[in-house]
Each structure stands twice: as C-alpha cells, then as structure tokens.
Design goal:
The complex is a heterodimer of chains A (about 1000) and B (about 190).
Chain A: H1 2-6, H2 11-24, H3 29-40, H4 44-58, H5 62-65, H6 68-71, H7 73-77, E1 88-89, E2 92-101, E3 104-111, E4 116-122, H8 131-146, E5 155-161, E6 164-170, E7 175-176, H9 177-183, H10 188-207, E8 220-222, E9 228-230, H11 253-258, H12 260-267, H13 272-275, H14 282-298, H15 308-317, H16 332-341, H17 353-369, H18 380-385, H19 413-416, H20 431-436, E10 455-459, E11 466-471, E12 477-484, E13 487-494, E14 500-506, E15 511-516, E16 522-527, E17 536-541, E18 548-552, E19 559-560, E20 566-573, E21 576-583, E22 590-596, E23 599-606, E24 612-621, E25 624-633, E26 639-641, E27 647-655, E28 661-668, E29 675-680, E30 686-688, E31 695-701, E32 707-723, E33 731-732, E34 746-748, E35 754-758, E36 765-769, E37 777-778, E38 786-791, E39 797-802, E40 809-814, E41 821-822, E42 830-834, E43 840-847, E44 850-857, E45 864-865, E46 873-876, E47 882-889, E48 893-900, E49 906-913, E50 917-921, E51 927-934, E52 937-944, E53 951-952, E54 960-966, E55 972-989
Antiparallel strand pairs in A: 1-2, 2-3, 3-4, 4-6, 5-6, 7-8, 8-9, 10-55, 11-12, 12-13, 13-14, 15-16, 16-17, 17-18, 19-20, 20-21, 21-22, 23-24, 24-25, 25-26, 27-28, 28-29, 29-30, 31-32, 32-33, 32-55, 34-35, 35-36, 36-37, 38-39, 39-40, 40-41, 42-43, 43-44, 44-45, 46-47, 47-48, 48-49, 50-51, 51-52, ...
Helix pairs in contact in A: 2-4, 3-4, 10-14, 10-17, 14-16, 16-17
Chain B: H1 5-16, H2 20-43, H3 53-64, H4 72-102, H5 113-138, H6 140-151, H7 156-163, H8 167-185
Helix pairs in contact in B: 1-2, 1-4, 2-3, 2-4, 4-5, 4-6, 5-6, 5-8, 6-8, 7-8
The chains are: A alpha+beta (about 1000), B mainly alpha (about 190).
Chain lengths: ~1000, ~190
C-alpha cells in the first residue's frame, strides 16, 4: 500500500479522527458536512480523512460481512492447479511434467535436500477425501517400499501439499511395459524375465500382506539396465470409490458399466472376482499378472471386448486362445503357467505367487537349455533368489538409479518397523512381580441398581500431575502418566502395596486412551508423532517389549472386546465420524456406524458379549451440545438410543460385566461438572457415582466391574497471606480442591479480617475469616454471582458487582452479609471500591472502550461522573492525593500515568511489563504493586515510584495469582492463588 | 479424546497469565485441531451450505479443553488465540492460492467465473491481512475486534464478552475499523 508511507498516522491523530468519525456516523447524513466543518475546526487534513472514512463506511464491503472462513471457503473447495515447473513443493523443486492420468500427475522433481532426482506423483484432490482408504494405501505403499526389494519402487515420502496427497519415489529412467510393447513385440526370454522380476516383487509384497490390486503394463517399468520396477502398490484402492472393502457384492457389472471412462483402463486387467466387486487377495494379483504375461508374449490381451461389459463378460466366461496361436514356439510349460494363473475360480489358480515364480524359473531354465539366452540384468536373478526370506540381514547399499551392483536389495527388519518403534518404549518390568499381588479380592457381581452405591475413593496419585490412567482387568495394577519436566513418565502402580515402577518416558505430549487388553498382557494407547500426523494406536506388552503400531487414524480411546479379539474406536473423516471395528492386529476394518456433521461420534465401548457397541454421539447446534448414548448392533448395524434424559456431554463409556448397566463420564444438562454416572441397561436410569464440582476424564473398569479408575481434574484456588517485605514466607490459609476461594475477589476489613468469595457451601458466596485462616464464616446465602469484592474502610459494608438485576451493577451488603442494596442501575458498572472516607463508591463504566470513572454515595443516591479522573483510572493513592491510570500499552510495556487528584497533567509515567496486571498502589503510596509472569511463575512485584528497578515480593514456584489485596495497615498481602491438578483415583465397591 | 486435554487447559491458563512459551506449545495443537476440523467442514462444503466458524472453534474448544476446568477468562483467551490461528490458516491459504493462480500455473487452467471470483477473494484477503497489521499499530483493540469478528466468526456480543467491553463499543469500533480497512484496501488517502 503506497498510501501507507505517505500518511503515517500517529495513534493520537487516529484517536482524533476516530472520535469525529464515530460521532459523525450517529448524526443525520444531511448534517454531516456541517458537523465536520465544526468538529475539525479548520484542520482540513483532518476533515478530509474523516470524510474519506465516511464514504468508505457507506459502501458495502462484502468481504467483511461474513466471517472469513465462510467467505473464502471457495478457495479450499476448488481443486488445486497443477504444479508448475520451478514450483517448490516442500524441499522438492519441480523440474518437468512426466505425465498425467486418472491417478493424477507425475512430475520429475529434485529433492533439494539430498540433491537427487525423484518422481513426484500428485494425486487428484478427490482422491484424498476418503481418509480410510488413503490411510490404508499409505500403510501398504510404505510396507511394500520398506521391503527394499530391487523390483519394487522405493517411496521416499508420502505427504500432503495443500490438501493434495503426493508420493515422492525414486525416479526411474526407463519405459513402462506398455510403452515397450507398443514399440516392439518382446522376445520370449525377455517376456519371461520381466514376468520373473514382477512375480518376485509381488512375492515379497504378498509375504507382508500387501496386495497390489492394479497389475498392468502401465505399472511395470523397465530400466535400461534390465531391472523391472513395480509401481503404485496399493494405490488402486484409492481409485475405486465403489470398490468394496468387505465381502459384499456391491460392485456389480452394472456399476462398472456406468462409469466406463473411469474404470476402462483398469478393467482390462481385472480378475473375475474384481469385476464382481468381491474382495481381492493375492490370487487376484496372480490373475492380473497372468494377463500381463499373456499379453507380453502374445502381443494382445487374453480377453477383449468392445465395451466394458463385453470385456467383463469375457473375463468372466471366455477361455483365452492358447499362446501358440500367436507364438508357435511358446514352451508348453509357459502355457501351463499362464493358464493356471488365468483360472476363473481363484481356488483353482496358483494359490501363492511363489509357486508361480518357481514355475516361471523352470520355464526360463527350459528355454535357456533349449539354447536361447535371456538378456537378464546383472543381479536381477540374485534378487529373485532372496524372495521370501524376509528376515535375513542383508548388507546395506545405495538404492538409487544406477543399479549396477548386485547388492541392491537392502532389507532391514528394523527399517520395516521404523514407524512402529518411533515411540519405542523400553518396557522392563520384572515379570514375577505382576503375579504376586492379589488384591481387591473377587466381588460378587451386583446388579447395577446397587452397584457403586457404597464406594471407596482411593487416590492412586497425589502429585497433581498424573492423568490418563487405566486399571488392569484383574484390578492389580494401574498404569498412568505423570507430567515431569518436559515429557511424560509412564508409571505402573501396584494397587495393593501402593508401590510404583516407572516404565518409560514419553517425549511426545500426544498420548491418550491407555487401555489394557482383557488378558492384561498388553497396553494399548494412542499417540501421535507430531501435531500433523494421524493419531495412531500402539500396543506394548505389559511385561516388556517394544511398542508396536497397530492401526492409524484412531481418534478416540480404543475399546477391546472381552474376548480380546476385536477393537472399536472412533475415526474422523471429512464431514463425518464413524465407529470402526477391527481385529486386534488392525486388520479387517469395518465401518459400523457413521454420523454426518453436525452430529458426531465421540467414543465407543464393546458390550460384554461382543454383540453390540455403546457409542457416545453428540450433536452440535446453536444451543450447544446435546449428547446421547447409542447402541449399535454389530451384525445388523441397527441403532437404538440408550439414554432417556438429555446430556450435555458424554465422554467415555464402559459396560458393567453382566451387561446390566453402563458407567459413563458425562455431564447432564443441569450440572456443569463432568462426573461419573451409572446408567441401568436397558432403561438408562441415571445415578451419579461422584458428586463433586470437579471434572473426571478417562475410565477403565476391572473385569468384574467392582472397581474403576479415572482421572480427577481439579482447579484449586486457595488463599495465602504473606507479610509485606518477606518474600519467602507466604502461608497458605485455606485449602481444598473445589472451594475456589477468592476466585471473585478478596478484600481486607478495617479490623484485619479477610473478605473473600468461596464456593465452600456449594454456591459462590461471600465469606469472612481471620487472617490466619481461622473462623471462616459464610456471609451470604442467595447464590447470586458476585465479583470484585471490596470492604469499606469504616467496616460497615462490602461492595461488589452483581448481575442479579440483569446488568452488571454495583451492589452493597452489610459487613455481616445482610441487606443487599443495589447502588447503580445502569447497563454495566464495574470495579467498585470505596473512598478513604467510606462515603463514596468509585466504579467505572466502559465508554468507547475507555474506563470512565463514576462515584455513587455508599448510602445510596445519584451517581456522579468523576470529571477530573483520567480515563482508564486504576486507583487512588492511600493518602488520597494521587491517581494512577493506564496511559498506553503495547506489546512491550504498559505505561502507567500518575496524576495529582486535582491536577490535569500527569506528574510521572512508569513503564511496567506488558503482562503486568492487577496494578494497584503499594501500601505506603511510594510504589505500585502488580502481578507479573516471570520465568514461568506469577508473583507480585513492586515498582518504586522513583523509577528504580522492580523487586519481587512473593516467591511462588508455580500456578497463577487471580487477586491480591493489601491489608489496611499495609503489613500483609492476601493472595488468591490458582493451581490446576489432575490425579488418578480408584473408586471401588465397598463390600 | 484429543491430546490430553488437561495439558491444553494448563497451557491456556499459563498463556493467559502471560507465558509466551505456553502459546508456542499451544499453537501447533490448536492449529492442527482447527486444520483438521476445517478440512472436515470444507470437505462437505457446497455453495448452499453455510459454514459456521464459531461452531468450528467451539468444537475445537470442546475437544481440546476441559470445559468446566477452565475459567471464563481462559475461554476468552482460547477464542482470541483461535481467531489468530484461523487468520493465519486462511490468509496463508489465500496467499498461496493467489500466487499459484497468478503464477505459471495460470495459463494451464481455464479461468472460469468461480475461479475469477475466488482469485479476487484471495487477493482481497491478503490485502486485508496487511491492512490489519497496519491497523494493529494504530489501534490494537480495533484490530483485535476485527480478528475476533472476521477471523474468529464471533458475534458482536461474543466479541464483547471476550474483550470485556460493551457490545455497543464493539459495534462502534467494528464499524470504524471496517471503514478504515476499506479505505486502506481500496488504496485511498487515509492511512
């Protein structure tokens, strides 16, 4: 903006312009000009600026009329354009466009970190919408790449760029088999060599459970040195929105026929089961490879059709012509191999690719013995020989474009588990210990209506820093995390003895939902490597071992079925959340139920018999949240609402062992705290198990439901008193976890007592006590909200702000809490305090964002504006002669002005830190005191008026300060200090 | 349950007490959560559908923070930081979009009406962001109001609540800020 340099406004000038503008918009447009003439009183520049603002004000500006997110949503919705040459994508620089197709665009790019060329495949934007598929694809592609097989393309990175996924792979200078076939018919030995290398790649991939799904000549590349590289492992699943993930018949021939353009290319090499929409397995790859081999030898595909449906019909019904029809000298062994690979019924095909590979090799030998020599690449044969032996340690080598040496096939078990061990926890527990303690005894199962009526609450931790706890099914031990230093320590606590053992240190802060397997042998937890990766479920053996990755995309705590075989959790998709069920090893995922925004699932729990899941379902609307508990039947997917009453929040759910009820962590519509509840089942009669004002998080039950473990979160607010000038000796005078003492203000009475707000009686009221904490007495009982308590110096009244009459107004009660009187009746009066003579109550109202000081007689009467008070006034000195006010503030400091009570020019300015707050006079009137944050801790600071360096008055080591107040004699400070704590608690049935 | 919610709550409290290090820790968590939610919302975006920014931030808040464990001030701080982050995400996106469309990629893609409109929008947003920085130097409170209202999607009343000022003040300042920004972005004399 060039205008910027030319018109550098000062803040003062801006205030002037703003003031006139804001006044001008209030008056009739016809009178504006006259008003401006007058208001600007000859300052023409000023008048022009205000005028310009006014004309802008009249114009509609669509951009600011809707929130930014709505206004620019279109930018996100629109597909990204293709990358351009020279464009940088992270550390990749695009050098050239290699090709485009249904699977996106492929670019040649330079990895600028490593200075090597790579191929960059940018997937179409709509590929990325199904996170489940994307996620599985990534898993498979990485798994295949991690094999470091010489015939499998190496993936350097799978990432995301502006919501489009990309795959960075090794760059292969060569041609696809399709391009090669177009140029010339391949010789028999060459065709067999390609088949062997491709089969070898598939064998390695199948070994680790990865099916390619899209074997076709376009996905097989040949390098000039003879190496074959198989591309795009697992990618195919992204391209078939209708393609089934379970054994259903959802993809029919008709489905395919409706989208011939999309699927045509792939249909050519589809197996019969794929055209039927059945689930694919390794044998489907065998069929597709059979088709490719046939085509490379014969020069035409085994099945052909003018339309997609003709082609599919051929795949399903037609027997291909024998190879000898095209290549008379094709060995019978080769014909046998191709025929066996192309059997319609997969049960009749090669059952493993390895068997096919063995046969292909014999065919090759046969051919060599008959005198023809294949132009095999150096090393390629060697590579084939290692197939299937996945656990051998092989020397490392350079994987790159120039595969001249034979030792290309690096395989490292470690590498394969790289992701899994990222959060590697070295778990070392003395195995024997686990079996020693028997505790909690065995409980007779009680029906839900009597369960948890008499409970005992045992604190497992008392440090205020522990959370994410889970109890083992036998109730013997509890695992939990403790925040220590910069990380989190995982502990196991033996309930009977109270002894605890550190298990390991987690350096990431993303960790949640720890859950024991039903046999207690494993501990599941969800973790993320960093904020941008998907939350992933890991499993560690309780008795030692490495963390194993189970499944990614886990957005809730996981529930393990009581037979230990299945997992349930919630996963978030774009615009949708779903309850996912999977095997404990992460396989066979099934989407059981889904919710579209604005509804969503939050958590899920297996019923004891494993036939259904109880799921917390939320609905968000303008009124806030509405939560329900929904049961979903596993086989039918039928849903039913369990809850009857309305809930504001349902966090976690666990079933009682006999299925007669559920325990939930939830907040009902009335109460604000998130508490533990017991719901009967069916019927959902709700009963609170905990009845305090704090919140609970995470939940686990013993297998007999007789004890549960949860995390108790408390906001502690307590009072301290410290003698002036003695920073080390602050004394805590109130204690307790849910009283919130002093949260809405503290004040001293003339006779040295402390007035403070407290929720000790349940509702927030005014209390009074001695300065040593004794003699605590509740003064009010009417449950109205009060802020900014201040006692009058003469000891008669307490003034405060309350919205009892609809607005924030100044009120007064007698010092004993009786007789509330409303003193002001405006639309917002704040910050009351009494004058030194106790005759007036000063307060402020906000006008144009500035605090304007008013006063009202303490005995009642009309309010008067204190015209000589500066805006943003902070207080009057103890001797009544000076006022302080906030003059200005920015990122670096707050400037406080000091003004004589009858003066109009500040006598002094003092700069305080920008984070200073609760600025008030020190008791002797020679310093300002305030709360400031320093080295991670809040303390009270003292800034002498003479401008010397500030000194620290208190020595708190943690937490925050909500309020502080000087005693009338200036000898003591009362402080309302805040700390948060979380601790692990065990709640058990009392027999 | 997202990243241990206690932690986020604690960080919010720390930050509200002026601990900038806490904000540094907090930003990526909230950023990632907002991005995640934004993507979820965007994914089902249709022209007829109205996105609700407050709903989005509210949801992030509910997911990240112990709702009752924090005091009102912390909630206000959350909205303030979330609005900042929304601004960052959206402007960043607009900036990239803008440069992409103007760059070499442009000739490859036929510009239809929607894209032309989007491009203008992106340019406007980038300009607005720059103007807002200037406004912050001049009138920090006004710029925060714009941040909360426009990027945070807060209503006048919500903004008043977060900033602890009267709704009438928010309206007055908002109107002034809009006029100033409009003036500034259209390159006229004020500013």
């Amino acid at each position: 903006m060039e205008a910027n340099a030319a018109h550098n406004l000062t803040q003062e000038r801006w205030q002037e312009i703003k003031g006139i503008f804001q006044a001008a918009v209030e008056i009739d447009p016809s009178e504006q000009d006259a008003f401006l003439e007058q208001a600007c009183s000859g300052d023409e520049a000023l008048r022009i600026r205000v005028k310009s603002l006014l004309s802008s004000d009249e114009q509609e500006w669509e951009l600011l009329e809707t929130p930014a997110f709505e206004a620019v949503a279109g930018l996100f919705a629109e597909d990204r354009p293709a990358l351009s040459i020279g464009h940088n994508l992270g550390h990749y620089k695009v050098l050239d466009l290699l090709g485009t197709g249904g699977m996106g665009e492929v670019y040649l790019a330079e990895d600028q970190r490593l200075g090597r060329k790579i191929a960059l495949k940018l997937l179409p934007a709509d590929f990325s919408t199904d996170q489940l598929r994307m996620h599985r694809f990534q898993q498979e592609a990485r798994a295949a790449s991690a094999l470091n097989h010489p015939n499998i393309i190496t993936i350097h990175e799978i990432g995301e760029f502006e919501d489009r996924h990309f795959i960075a792979t090794e760059f292969i200078e060569g041609r696809t088999l399709r391009q090669l076939m177009k140029r010339r018919k391949l010789t028999l030995p060459k065709a067999i060599d390609i088949a062997i290398q491709a089969a070898s790649a598939l064998a390695a991939a199948h070994e680790v459970g990865v099916v390619h799904r899209d074997i076709k000549p376009e996905n097989i590349m040949l390098r000039p040195d003879g190496y074959v590289k198989l591309l795009d492992f697992g990618l195919a699943q992204l391209n078939h929105p209708q393609s089934p993930t379970t054994d259903t018949e959802s993809l029919t021939v008709d489905n395919v026929d409706t989208a011939p353009g999309v699927l045509m290319g792939t249909v050519n090499y589809m197996s019969p089961e794929q055209t039927r929409g059945q689930r694919l397995d390794a044998r489907s790859d065998i069929f597709s490879l059979g088709m490719v081999i046939y085509e490379t030898i014969a020069g035409c595909p085994p099945f052909e059709g003018k339309t997609t449906s003709d082609l599919i019909a051929a795949i399903l019904k037609v027997e291909p012509l024998p190879l000898t029809q095209y290549v008379p000298d094709a060995p019978p062994e080769l014909q046998r191999i191709v025929s066996k690979a192309l059997r319609k019924d997969r049960e009749e095909r090669y059952q493993t690719i390895k068997d096919m590979l063995v046969d292909l090799r014999s065919a090759k030998k046969e051919l060599e013995q008959s005198g023809t020599t294949a132009n095999t690449a150096d090393g390629a044969e060697t590579a084939i020989n290692t197939v299937g032996r996945l656990n051998v340690n092989v020397t490392s080598g350079q994987s790159g474009i120039h595969a001249s040496s034979s030792a290309q096939y690096i395989f490292s078990e470690l590498k394969r588990h790289r992701t899994g061990s990222a959060v590697a926890l070295a778990v070392l527990i003395v195995g024997a210990v686990a079996t020693v303690f028997a505790l909690l005894g065995s409980f007779n199962q009680k029906p839900s209506r009597t369960l948890y009526l008499n409970t005992r609450l045992t604190r497992i931790t008392n440090d205020g820093k522990s959370h994410s706890a889970t109890i083992s099914p036998d109730g013997k031990y509890v695992a939990y995390l403790t925040r220590e230093g910069g990380g989190q320590n995982l502990w196991i606590n033996w309930v009977a003895s109270g002894s605890k053992v550190p298990i390991g240190l987690l350096t990431r802060s993303y960790y949640y939902g720890p859950t024991f397997s039903p046999d207690g042998n494993y501990l599941y937890y969800v973790s993320k490597e960093d904020s941008d990766t998907e939350p992933t479920l890991y499993r560690i053996p309780t008795l030692g071992g490495l963390a194993q990755k189970v499944i990614s995309g886990v957005d809730s705590a996981v529930s393990v079925s009581s037979d230990g075989k299945r997992l349930a959790f919630v996963r978030n998709y774009p615009g949708e959340t779903s309850v996912i069920v999977a095997n404990v090893d992460g396989t066979t995922e099934q989407k059981l139920a889904s919710r579209q925004d604005p509804e969503y699932f939050w958590s899920a729990a297996w019923s004891p018999d494993g036939t259904k899941l109880a799921c917390a379902g939320m609905r968000r609307d303008s009124q806030g949240l509405d939560a329900k508990l929904i049961e979903v039947e596993l086989t039918s997917g039928i849903e039913r609402t369990i809850t009857v009453q309305g809930w504001r929040w349902i966090d976690q759910v666990r079933w009682l062992q006999d299925g007669s009820g559920l325990i939930v962590i939830a907040a009902d519509k009335e109460a604000s705290a998130i508490q533990l509840w017991l719901l009967s089942y069916p019927g959902a009669d709700a009963r609170r198990i905990t009845t305090d004002l704090n919140n609970y998080a995470n939940l686990s039950l013993t297998s007999d439901s007789s004890a549960l473990v949860t995390t108790h979160n408390a906001q502690l607010m307590n009072l301290w008193v410290t003698p002036s000038g003695d920073s080390g000796s602050a004394r805590q005078i109130t204690s307790g976890s849910d009283k919130r003492d002093g949260m809405y203000g503290i004040s001293w009475t003339a006779d040295g007592q402390i007035i403070y707000s407290s929720s000790a009686g349940g509702s927030q009221e005014i209390w009074r006590m001695e300065s040593d904490g004794s003699n605590q007495k509740q003064l009010t009982i009417d449950s109205s909200q009060r802020h900014s308590l201040s006692a009058s110096p003469d000891g008669r009244y307490i003034v405060y702000v309350s919205d009892r009459a609809g607005y924030m107004n100044v009120w007064r009660v007698n010092i004993d809490g009786s007789n509330p009187i409303q003193l002001t009746h405006g639309t917002g009066e704040l910050g009351p305090y009494c004058s030194a003579d106790s005759k007036w109550v000063f307060y402020h109202v906000l006008e144009s964002g500035k605090r304007i000081t008013w006063k009202v007689p303490i005995d009642g009467g009309d309010p008067v504006q204190v015209t000589n008070a500066p805006p943003e006034m902070l207080g009057v000195s103890p001797d009544g002669k000076l006022m302080i006010y906030l003059d200005s503030g920015d990122q670096t400091k707050k400037r406080v002005g000091i003004l004589a009570i009858d003066g109009d020019q500040p006598v002094k300015f003092l700069d305080l830190p920008s984070s200073a707050w609760r600025i008030q006079w020190g008791p002797d009137g020679r310093a300002l005191t305030y709360v400031d944050w320093h080295k991670g801790v809040q303390n009270i600071w003292n800034q002498p008026l003479d401008g010397g360096p500030p000194s620290q008055m208190t020595d708190f080591k943690g937490g925050g300060i909500a309020f502080f107040a000087w005693s009338r004699d200036g000898k003591k400070v009362a402080i309302a200090g805040r700390q948060t704590s979380s601790d692990v608690v065990l709640i058990s049935e009392v027999k | 349950m997202p990243a241990s919610s206690n932690e986020v709550t604690e960080l919010l409290i720390k930050w509200s007490k002026g601990d900038q290090a806490a904000l540094d820790e907090l930003m990526p968590v909230i950023h990632s959560e907002l991005r995640r939610l934004a993507r979820r919302y965007m994914a089902r975006e249709r022209p007829s559908h109205t996105l609700q920014t407050t709903a989005l931030i509210n949801e992030a808040y509910l997911r990240l923070v112990d709702q009752q464990g924090v005091e009102w001030q912390d909630r206000a701080h959350f909205f303030a930081v979330a609005a900042q982050i929304m601004r960052h995400i959206l402007v960043d996106h607009a900036r990239k979009y803008h440069s992409d469309k103007r760059g070499a990629g442009a000739q490859k893609v036929p510009l239809d009406d929607v894209m032309v409109a989007n491009q203008e929008r992106a340019a406007e947003l980038v300009a607005l962001d720059e103007a807002l920085n200037d406004l912050a130097a001049l009138d920090p409170r006004q710029s925060q109001i714009v941040e909360l209202r426009f990027f945070g999607g807060l209503t006048v009343e919500e903004t008043a609540e977060v900033m602890k000022i009267a709704p009438i003040t928010v309206m007055r300042e908002w109107r002034t800020a809009k006029a100033w920004l409009r003036d500034k972005c259209s390159g006229s004399s004020l500013g």
